[in-house]
Design goal:
Elements lengths: L21 H6 L13 E12 L5 E12 L10 E5 L10 H9 L3 E6 L18 H13 L6 E3 L2 E2 L1 E6 L1 H12 L3 E7 L5 H5 E2 L9 E2 L1 H13 L10 H7 L28 H13 L4 H9 L13 E6 L7 H12 L5 E6 L10 H20 L9 E10 L4 E9 L9 E7 L4 E5 L17 H10 L7 E5 L7 E5 L2 E7 L4 E11 L5 E3 L5 E6 L11 E4 L3 E5 L4 E7 L12 E7 L6 E7 L3 E2 L3 H33 L13 E10 L2 E11 L4 E5 L6 H8 L7 E6 L2 E2 L10 E4 L11 H12 L8 H8 L14 H13 L5 E5 L7 H14 L5 E5 L3 H7 L2 E6 L2 E7 H5 L4 E6 L2 H10 L5 E4 L4 E5 L5 H10 L4 E6 L3 H9 L10
Parallel strand pairs: 3-4, 3-7, 7-8, 8-11, 11-12, 12-13, 31-36, 31-37, 34-35, 35-36
Antiparallel strand pairs: 1-2, 2-4, 5-6, 9-10, 13-14, 14-28, 15-27, 16-26, 17-25, 18-24, 19-23, 19-26, 19-27, 20-21, 20-22, 20-25, 29-30, 29-32, 32-33, 37-38, 39-41, 39-42, 40-41
InterPro entries: AAA+_ATPase, AB_hydrolase_fold, ABC_transporter-like_ATP-bd, ABC_transporter-like_CS, Galactose-bd-like_sf, P-loop_NTPase, Xaa-Pro-like_dom, Xaa-Pro_dipept_C
Protein name: ABC transporter ATP-binding protein
GO molecular function, one term: ATP binding
Length: 947
């Protein structure tokens, strides 16, 4: 999968630093400092016929390309590299890596494995009799060239490297052919059967089928990675960026022997039948296990004598760190030099950060330079790993810091930290046929971005998982290796398939699953009662992660995952952590390492320097602000300590423009005060000043006796809706209110959540998503938000904007209810009739000044306008026409007249109507707030909007 972890192109003249040990690393930098502009190589495309199969009697034509460095000749022989592609790829998939290696002076032979692209044959999945034997014939082919360095007759000086499918080939070839001088297998397997049937507990060899990954493999083999993008190149997706589908455009697909089974494509019949059988059963039978073992390095590691650099990815749900660990131990047992390197990519994470890729490229070249060219001292067999530590200022991505340790400590680390997790037994349900199921990773995407997306949005399904959490960590723990935990389970069927996960939970409750990795466990012989269940040790996936102080660990035991094939029957399990007589304990391996200096680290120091400058600037701003704060009068006016709002001489100007000239008014407890005025009068500007959103040019504002200043603590006693509501549409009303209150930083118990909802009258609608709200519901939700904490003063700007009449009437009742219990409301509105019915007091503003204030009934006063309900509207109209002094009248409905009596008294007018034979049912003096308002401000058209 990863023929080379990085491709730093020659044209960008990038420095290759990272990897190695201390001074050795820096000394080796000279050979990597500058990449030449000239390619430095030529290519030779050739079809090579090889004899393959158990008897060597089958002929296969392999599509090859040889990259020869400039100057290679019979008089200047060069060492060679076999560069194998990943599953589903072709020789084109590794072209970029081959070019880079050729530029370092190696003859690089790439080829398309049989069954893929333009090569003939069928896919035998790295069979020793087929693909491995093919590679041996390619060694013979290299040995026949006069420009390749030889160690003996027919023995080329050669190294082998590749990722995933190609990585396993390099291990199997080194075990089968001792001519191989050094190998670099990347993100590959140890035992293919155990990789595809994962088991994280030593209870049974029968693991859990990775159905998603197996499906990706099989479907890719159906097309054989033919030219034109027919296949899914797992190598390019996982690591080295080769073209998906492998073959170049125009490539002629290899014919290969016809497969009579239409379900098999270019798969060899025996492998295809094995897949179809185990995919249906979800279990490995004895024949399948043996067949996969023949294609696994596990059984031949003792025959590998070639020095081995093993590279494995942290973001890899297909071949996790346990595969490289098993390979390392098996090879090192023979005394063969072995080095292990972990990086932050993999099948699920791509290349990882560029700084990581640079480190791996250096390690690879250093390894081959010594064992093939004899350059430098023998590379250290130390262990290196990486951890994401910051941002790459050059590539605008993440940056990984490499660490090194003298000896490889394995997956259990140098030491361990134990963290208790709590929680009693829980019942969880296994869904029928594993559906629905949680999504932990996206097999086959090879995208770090997609993996991060899944990690960010996926959650375990209700009823299908149990959680057990620790207390907040007192100090940070740097985990390097495979954590472990004991679990217990009970099942009425005696069997269970479970998925154990380790989450990092921050103080806000957000949980992160490292690289989306989980531990599948198949348990058999289970009791029906949890009290009788014995603890089982579960080895969690290998990770490199810093668990910060204050974070919690969460162990989740789930019953279904989309990437795996669990049990089909619906059944309830009981699960717990730890032994029955004690709490659960998570064991975290730690391996402190020495950071490896890299060129990219210099950018980190530059960034830190910039941050230091920003911090210094912020400190200066804070000092200046504090000095200004000390100059502000913080005294409290005892005379107004119980008055919600007291305003005198308020003025606000913007340059030469006067938005508010001089405003005086008071809001007392129990009052609902309406702030009225035509457009441009200064209402909204006044409210913005009162809320601390802008600073007054002059004047004095006291809130409960405290002088107003932006950010003043007394503002917490005010709730406001001034510039329209803003809510997240995908959240419910209740969730929006909760998010708003959390943002204030105030204790939840102070929110008075239920009280605010009751006053606002939202009812069950608060449970619905805001995107489904009407405009009126949004307004009521905004008012409810302003009421959270039941502030003593509520300030609202046009709360009835856009509401229909029933909603306006309800808002009226809401405001009147709120003003009870000694609270107060200040409301700005252009609906004068509603202010008249809602407010106890009013303040009329015109051209930036208060032209009237006081009780609403006092502002309305008396009026010459009278409403008359009469029995005969026509006779009454004729009578009024003959009555001298009446200014005018209007008909309002079938029986009502609106009469402006002018100089005629109400008594005289009624007497005249009665004498004329008109019956009068009601006489009502009429004067509205609108009348008073128009009398105060005239027909104002000042401004096109409020100030």
């Amino acid at each position: 999968m990863r023929a080379l972890a990085a491709r730093v192109r020659a044209k960008i003249n990038r420095r290759w630093i990272a990897g190695g040990v201390g001074v050795v690393l820096l000394a080796g930098l000279a050979a990597w400092a500058v990449w030449p502009e000239d390619p430095g190589y030529r290519t030779v495309d050739e079809r090579v016929s090889v004899r393959t199969g158990p008897l060597g009697d089958q002929e296969v034509s392999l599509d090859t390309r040889l990259y020869l460095p400039d100057g290679a000749s019979a008089g200047n022989k060069v060492p060679a590299l076999l560069l194998a592609h990943g599953f589903g790829g072709t020789k084109e998939s590794v072209a970029l890596d081959a070019q880079d290696l050729a530029g370092l002076g190696y003859a690089v032979l790439t080829w398309t494995a049989q069954g893929f692209g333009a090569s003939t044959g069928q896919i035998h999945l790295n069979s020793p009799d087929y693909e491995v034997r093919d590679a041996q014939r390619l060694l013979d082919h290299l040995a026949e060239r006069d420009d390749i360095q030889l160690d003996g007759s027919g023995d080329p000086r050669v190294g082998v490297l590749g990722g995933s499918y190609g990585g396993a080939l390099s291990l199997l070839l080194a075990a089968q052919d001792q001519r191989v001088d050094a190998i670099v297998p990347m993100i590959t397997w140890n035992d293919l059967g155990k990789s595809l049937f994962a088991q994280s507990a030593a209870t049974t060899d029968d693991g859990v089928f990775k159905q998603a990954w197996a499906g990706v493999f099989f479907s890719s083999g159906m097309s054989g990675g033919r030219g034109g993008g027919g296949g899914l190149d797992l190598e390019s997706l996982g690591a080295n960026g080769g073209a998906p589908g492998g073959g170049a455009g125009g490539e002629t697909p290899g014919a290969g022997p016809a497969n009579l089974n239409p379900q098999c494509g270019r798969w060899a019949a025996d492998i295809c039948e094995t897949y179809l059988r185990v995919a249906a059963a979800g279990r490995l039978d004895a024949n399948s296990r043996e067949q996969l073992a023949q294609r696994s390095p596990a059984g031949v590691l003792n025959r590998i004598k070639a020095p081995t650099l093993l590279v494995q990815g942290l973001a890899d749900s297909l071949f996790p760190l346990t595969e490289a660990d098993a390979n390392a131990r098996g090879i090192a047992a023979n005394g063969t030099p072995v080095r292990v390197a972990w990086f932050s990519g993999g099948h699920d994470g791509g290349d990882g950060p560029q700084s990581d890729a640079d480190r791996l490229k250096f390690l690879t070249a250093q390894w081959f330079d010594h064992y093939l060219k004899g350059n430098g001292a023998a590379p250290a067999t130390s262990f290196t790993y990486s951890r994401i530590t910051g941002l790459d200022a050059v590539d605008r991505g993440t940056m990984a810091t490499g660490y090194q340790i003298t000896d490889y400590p394995g997956l259990t680390g140098r030491s361990a930290v134990q963290v208790p997790v709590s929680g009693g037994p829980r019942t969880v349900a296994n869904p029928p046929n594993g559906t629905p199921a949680a999504l932990s990773s996206l097999p086959g995407t090879g995208s770090g971005a997609l993996s991060s997306f899944v990690n960010g949005v996926v959650s375990d399904l209700p009823g299908q998982h149990a959680r057990f959490e620790s207390a907040p960590l007192e100090q940070a723990v740097s985990v390097v290796g495979t954590p472990s935990v004991q679990i217990r389970a009970a099942s009425p069927t005696g069997e269970a398939v479970l998925y154990v996960k380790l989450y990092d939970v921050d103080p806000n409750g957000s949980a992160a699953l490292s690289m989306g990795l989980i531990a599948p466990v198949r348990l058999t012989g289970l009791p029906t009662s949890i009290d009788q269940a014995r603890p089982v040790q579960v080895t969690l996936p290998g990770i490199v992660r810093e668990f910060e102080a204050g974070h919690r660990l969460r162990i989740t035991i789930a019953t279904a995952d989309q990437s795996y094939l669990g049990l089909a029957a619906p059944v309830d399990y009981t699960v717990a952590v730890g032994p029955a007589d004690g709490g659960g304990m998570v064991t975290l391996p730690t391996t402190p390492g020495t950071p490896i200096a890299t060129a990219d680290a210099l950018w980190l120091y530059v960034l830190l320097g910039l941050l230091a400058l920003l911090a210094l600037g912020l400190a200066i701003v804070i000092v200046v602000a504090r000095r200004r704060h000390r100059r502000v009068d913080h005294s409290v006016s005892a005379a107004h300590a119980d008055t919600p709002l007291w305003v005198r001489g308020l003025r606000k100007t913007y340059g030469d423009f006067v938005a508010v000239d001089s405003i005086d008014f008071t809001v007392e407890r129990g009052q609902v005060v309406g702030l009225l005025g035509p457009n441009g009068a200064g209402k909204t500007t006044s409210l913005r000043v009162l809320m601390g959103l802008t600073q007054a040019t002059a004047g004095e504002v006291l809130i409960f006796g405290h002088r107003l200043a932006p950010g003043a603590p007394v503002l917490s006693r005010i709730g406001a809706l001034v510039e329209g509501p803003g809510f997240l549409p995908h959240l419910s009303g209740e969730q929006n209110l909760a998010a708003y209150w959390r943002a204030t930083g105030r204790p939840w118990e102070e929110a008075r959540f239920d009280d605010a909802l009751a006053i606002a009258g939202l009812g069950d609608a608060v449970k619905r998503k805001v995107k489904n709200y009407s405009h009126g519901m949004r307004q009521r939700l905004a008012v409810a938000q302003a009421m959270l904490g039941l502030p003593e003063l509520l300030v609202l700007d046009e709360p009835t904007d856009g509401l229909d009449p029933p909603q306006i009437a309800e808002m009226r009742r809401v405001l009147q209810r709120y003003a009870s219990d000694g609270r107060a409301v200040l409301v700005s509105s252009h609906l004068l009739a509603e202010v008249e019915q809602t407010c106890t007091h009013a303040v009329v503003v015109h051209k930036g000044r208060v032209v009237a204030s006081g009780r609403v009934d006092e502002i309305v006063g008396d009026s010459p306008t009278t409403l008359l309900d009469v029995t005969d509207i026509d006779l009454a109209s004729k009578t009024l026409d003959r009555l001298d002094g009446v200014t005018g009248y209007a008909v309002d409905g079938e029986r009502t007249l609106v009469v402006d009596l002018g100089d005629v008294s109400r008594t005289d007018a009624v007497s005249a109507l009665v004498r004329a034979g008109v019956g009068i049912d009601r006489v009502t003096p009429r004067r509205r707030l609108e009348d008073a308002f128009l009398a105060l401000v005239g027909d104002s058209t000042a401004g096109s909007g409020d100030r």
